[in-house]
Write a structure and sequence with these properties.
It contains 13 helices and 9 strands. With 327 residues, the chain is an alpha/beta fold. The strands form 2 sheets. It has a 7-stranded parallel beta sheet, with helices on both faces. This is NAD(P)-dependent oxidoreductase.
């Protein structure tokens, strides 16, 4: 075994483990929760656990994390213990074990308040050059962990890639207004234009990052489905997003109407993946065009991998009226 996947019981961890198994790669899964894809059960913040699991590894894909859904149910210290200390322990043990590439799963939530333009401003055009302004402990802890990754790449020469992934969870939106107005498939189809990626494309990005890490040294990339929008569209997206979408995709209105779907009236941000396309050679397949083609064919627009992994949730407890509590 030469690949260690942390968070192997989670959405992305399971997707990675499934993919490696299908490819004949003998990956090792590490998670605090037992699962069919977890070989080492324990916390990433426990050095003994990490050291045992790291033995013989040449690649680490670090997907384990406390997520935004945990903000209302976990303390700041919990986030620091898992997202910061856990990442530090993994980095230190990776260096000691002679790991050749380290891939860290981060999030576009690191951008935080930088994603919300003023009312009359155009939608935000979000590239890797946008300065993060975290607005909760989740974003703050992931920014800190990113900093550790960059430090280890530069000081300890550990080839490291940070992937800021956009939404790929299948659960309903935490925003009650979105849940009330749009069924989950409708909302997630809309998001493929600007802030979502299919988990199969996310997995591909991680595999490419692991392969390219040694040549790059350190890199930070936004991983989101390729947007059809241009910077010239940003002003119109704030007040007439459907008009922009219908201009770019003339078949969209009829396909949406057939399903009883609607588009969001406004869009406030657009994630731009150009750097990942250029430097990683990443080619996401499950974009808005693919979604429309699937609607026309009467098929599920999600990848087979997304359907296999399914919805996993974030808590053992089931919350009434919402997928998880919001802080």
């Amino acid at each position: 075994m030469t690949i260690l996947v942390t968070g192997s019981a989670g959405h992305l961890g399971e997707a990675l483990m499934r993919t490696f198994h299908q490819q004949g790669e003998a990956a090792r899964g590490l998670d605090i929760k037992p699962s069919p894809f977890t070989h080492c059960v324990g916390s990433i913040a426990e050095r003994g656990v990490v050291r045992r699991c790291m033995a013989g590894m040449r690649t680490v894909i670090h997907a384990a994390t406390l997520h935004k859904p945990h903000v209302a149910t976990h303390s700041y210290q919990n986030f620091l213990d898992t997202n910061v200390t856990g990442t530090l322990v993994l980095l230190e043990e990776a260096v000691k074990a002679g790991v050749e590439s380290f891939v860290f799963t981060s999030t576009t939530s690191t951008f935080g308040a930088a994603l919300t333009p003023a009312k009359d401003e155009p939608a935000a055009w979000v590239t890797e050059d946008v300065l993060p302004i975290p607005k909760n402990i989740y974003g703050a802890s992931k920014v800190a962990a990113e900093g550790l990754c960059e430090l280890f790449a530069r000081k300890h020469r550990l080839p490291t890639i940070v992937l800021r992934t956009s939404r790929f969870f299948p659960e309903a939106d935490d925003d009650a207004a979105i849940r009330d107005a749009y069924e989950p498939a409708n909302a997630q189809a809309n998001e493929l234009l600007n802030r979502r990626a299919d988990i199969a494309d996310i997995v591909d990005a991680h595999i490419l990052a692991a392969e390219r890490a040694k040549a790059i040294g350190f890199g930070r990339y936004i991983i989101s489905a390729t947007t059809p929008f241009a910077e010239d569209d940003l002003a119109a997206l704030r007040h007439d997003a459907p008009g922009v979408v219908n201009r770019l995709f003339p078949d969209c209105p009829a396909l949406f109407a057939k399903r009883g779907w609607r588009f969001f009236p406004a869009i406030d941000r657009v994630y731009v993946n150009r750097r990942a396309l250029k430097e990683l050679g990443w080619r996401p397949r499950y974009d808005f065009r693919n979604m429309l083609d699937s609607l026309a064919q009467g098929t599920d627009f999600r990848s087979p991998l997304a359907r296999e992994v399914g919805s996993k949730g974030y808590h053992d407890e089931v919350f009434a009226g919402a997928p998880y509590p919001v802080a």
